[in-house]
Design a protein that fits this description.
single chain; elongated; mainly alpha; about 240 residues; Ferritin
């Protein structure tokens, strides 16, 4: 993660309530990843990969439990309630495992995807480990999970070279392009949200006064006091 984002990360993680909800979000992503890996273990014909996928799935579930316990503890310790603004795109967790497509006979693309996802998660968690500051318990959670992430990153790269020795380079590049595209979409969605809020604010302060002024002028043109009643008409006919 870029060094210029470190001050932003410290701000994101400085609030205990925001920190708690961030960890709960990480717990959801890790649990989803564990289910995907369990599904991959069912589909792969490779016995070694099946064992590794199952171990990886168990690790993801354990990470989910750790994040959930710590996040819940932070929220219990805090007097405030409500998630507030959650800058998800500034503090991503292990992105991608929650939307990976697990297909039978496609261990190569899956391993390439997992390797890049685990590498990105390891970098992000290392930054978060420092960003939480004096919160020793949360730092310990990230430190323990980082050890597993390094193993996941190592085994996925090694197994990719074993199952797809001729295509491993292309598979990694293809996975990188996919991650770049998803990153662009996340940025575009975040930017659209910010721009939408700005435009709505400008409309409120620019257009609303114009309509208010028009209504005020129209009110001045209305005569004061009671207006004379209209002439009586025959109410029996249409006109």
């Amino acid at each position: 993660m870029s060094a210029w984002l470190n001050p932003i990360q410290r701000w994101v993680w400085s609030d205990p309530v925001r920190r708690g909800y961030r960890l709960l979000r990480f717990a959801e992503v890790e649990a989803d990843g564990g289910r995907d890996l369990a599904r991959a273990a069912e589909l792969t014909p490779d016995p070694k990969l099946r064992r590794l996928y199952l171990r990886h799935a168990a690790d993801e579930q354990r990470h989910s439990d750790m994040f959930r316990r710590r996040g819940a503890a932070l929220l219990r310790e805090s007097a405030r309630r409500g998630a507030g603004w959650q800058p998800d795109w500034l503090a991503p967790g292990e992105r991608g495992l929650d939307d990976v497509e697990v297909e039978e006979g496609r261990d190569g693309p899956l391993l390439a995807f997992l390797h890049l996802s685990e590498a990105a998660a390891a970098r992000s968690f290392a930054v978060y480990h420092q960003a939480v500051g004096a919160d020793a318990e949360t730092r310990e959670v990230f430190a323990r999970i980082l050890k597993d992430e390094n193993f996941h990153m190592s085994y996925t790269r090694h197994e990719l070279g074993r199952v797809a020795p001729q295509k491993q380079g292309w598979l990694l590049w293809k996975a990188r392009l996919g991650r770049l595209w998803k990153g662009y979409l996340r940025f575009a969605v975040a930017l659209a949200g910010v721009m939408g809020a700005i435009l709505l604010t400008l409309q409120y302060f620019i257009l609303l006064p114009v309509f208010a002024l028009g209504a005020k002028r129209a009110a001045k043109r209305e005569p004061e006091g009671w207006a004379p009643a209209r002439d009586k008409r025959d109410l029996k006919g249409q006109y």
